[in-house]
Amino acid sequence: MQVLPTIAIIGRPNVGKSTLFNRLVGKKLALVDDQPGVTRDRRYADGRLSDLRFRVIDTAGMDEAEADMLESRMLLQTRAAMAEADILFFMVDGRIGVTPMDEHFAQEARASNKPVVVLVNKAEGNAGLAFLGDVYALGFERVVAISAEHNEGMADLFDTMVELGVEAEATGDDAQEFADDKPINLVIMGRPNAGKSTLINALLGEERLLTGPEAGITRDSIAVPFDYKGQRFQLFDTAGMRKRTNMRGKLEKLSVSDTIRALNFAEVVLLLMDATIALEKQDAVLGALIEREGRSVVIGLNKWDLVEGDKKAYLEDFEHYLSKQLPQLSGVHVVTLSALKGQGLEKVLDAVLSARQVWNKKIPTAELNRWLEGVIAHHTPPMIRGRRLKVKYMTQTKARPPTFQLFTNMDKEFPDAYLRYIVNGIRQTFDLAGTPIRVTIKASNNPFAKYAKKR
């Protein structure tokens, strides 16, 4: 299997690191804004430049700060990326030139003993070339003028990467190895300060993501690879989602949009709640959003070690209240844990694997219709405007989530209450607890009539 070289993009805030990251990855994975300091955690993705293939890391802007400040923890994340990388892309703003901060961090890049490519960004139309002399004075051998936003200078960057030994994309059997064994996409969602990043760090056994007492540290969705019991995962840490009325500024709205976009890639969503203040209305809103997107879900009650009193009674009250707030996710797995103390982590992952299995479940049509006959016999369909509602047969059209088609003589008048009766019966009989169930109703004549006529 081809081993991809790792490239870390480093530099002070707001020089265009995330813009270049998105350009190399070919997707808008990282949030980009004029406000400095948008990126806080390090983000990984597979990059490509023409036929060159590599692993690329987007990092927080390098900024000096006191040890107990958030910016200091961001700098530690950047240094971790530098230690892991094979090549450093040190980016400066070509329109501003070399600042004292650039000079300071150039020394750090030089001390890493890694190959360094200085990227003079925002150099479109030669506007950023006035300070090239100052850039060369930093003492690095490789300097490339680019515009990440306008896709200029990429040919020169390609030549430099080839010179550094970055190889062309794998083909044939080697390429197949990259496509096989796709990981489970697990998205972790919740309100701010529920402990999402702390949980991922606990699972990985390292300070991979920024954490702290400040609410809203995570701003964009960060994907982190992880293995458990031989199963590969892609863990997505997301920004905490507050009530819409409490959102402040463009950046928070972008962060929430990025979280919702992460749902498109999810197979399982871990809805993490703070056990000391659960269940709030916003938790129910997030649960409804997950159900609407058709994702399987596990609820994690974090900070369980801080819950006082009768924990068994607390859990019973929580599950009762949950059944009232989110009846569409009846029977969802509720797991108690403490991310900070590393308690309950295996229970969470086992519940995730179980929820995914339910989400993928297929029920044979014959078995489904034998069950449907019993349901109809137990509770006869109601009369509608003097006509008897007839439920004829049912089939599962797809999984992920389980989706069914129900054939009847009156599709438009089908009562919601009777549909809920059928859905609840499916969930209980076929062990589909905690996953969204979709049922479409279709009018149909007797499906066997055409065969009867032939005889």
Brief overview, please?
The chain has 455 residues and is α/β, with parallel strands linked by helices.
Structural features, described:
The protein has 455 residues and is an alpha/beta fold. It folds into three domains: 6-177, 3-Layer(aba) Sandwich (Rossmann fold), CATH 3.40.50.300; 181-359, P-loop containing nucleotide triphosphate hydrolases (Rossmann fold, 3-Layer(aba) Sandwich), CATH 3.40.50; 365-454, GMP Synthetase, Chain A, domain 3 (2-Layer Sandwich). 35% of the residues lie in helices and 22% in strands. The chain has 14 helices and 17 strands. Strands 2-3-1-4-5-6 form a six-stranded mixed beta sheet, with helices on both faces. A hairpin with a 2-residue loop joins strand 13 (383-384) and strand 14 (387-388). The longest helix has 15 residues, at 70-84. Residues 31-38, 172-180, 212-216, 246-252 and 451-455 have low confidence and may be disordered.
Brief descriptors of the model:
6-stranded mixed sheet, 455 residues, elongated, 14 helices, GMP Synthetase, Chain A, domain 3, alpha/beta, 3 domains, Rossmann fold
